Description:
By secondary structure, the chain is an alpha+beta fold. It has seven helices and twelve strands. The protein has a domain at 85-267.
Amino acid sequence: xxxxxxxxxxxxxxxxxxxxxxxxxxxxxxxxxxxxxxxxxxxxxxxxxxxxxxxxxxxxxxxxxxxxxxxxxxxxxxxxxxxxxxxxxxxxxxxxxxxxxxxxxxxxxxxxxxxxxxxxxxxxxxxxxxxxxxxxxxxxxxxxxxxxxxxxxxxxxxxxxxxxxxxxxxxxxxxxxxxxxxxxxxxxxxxxxxxxxxxxxxxxxxxxxxxxxxxxxxxxxxxxxxxxxxxxxxxxxxxxxxxxxxxxxxxxxxxxxxxxxxxxxxxx
Length: 268
């Protein structure tokens, strides 16, 4: 069982790990682990991406000290191949404490009564391509969600680049099939946004190309959608990171039973 016992990034505590195949997922044991995750995030999000330069080769922010960091490593080489961070919230009343609340008006989610978990800064080493990495990451998250009784998983899903035209089919498909329920739907808060749901109501020469749309979406977002996840009706334009991101939510109770069984099989 993957157990968690870390509240602050710098607190060195012992945690067990989740192993699957050649990879192991574990929680950060101290600041050195967090720094390694920040270094991988720099490689994935900033180096060569067109993002604003940083004074050091790490991606950092104030939320790192509040979150629980997960590292996925190759058991044979010890290489860090994936990382992400988790911010547990007791319910919707705490939604304003989340990273996403900086960019979206999340007042509609304040009424959510169950436990929530914000997944952030998810990345895979750009030089490593192995679908098992994503499976191990989701297996670890599934264990944590089940163990802690989380009822909603949410976060920001990012597209590389800040020009919406590159993702015309993807945004059209999100608008047609995957918008958040009206009572949870995030409102506009960021100064620069692309309102793709409004854009999709304009006449199109053809329906969105599903294959092209799915290929353009980040792997994490594809996984969310396959489980019944939903997105905001607009994307935030983040020039600092040179990305477009959408708020993404997943109500655990709404995951199709067959998909839930597959996730728990991975997590065994």
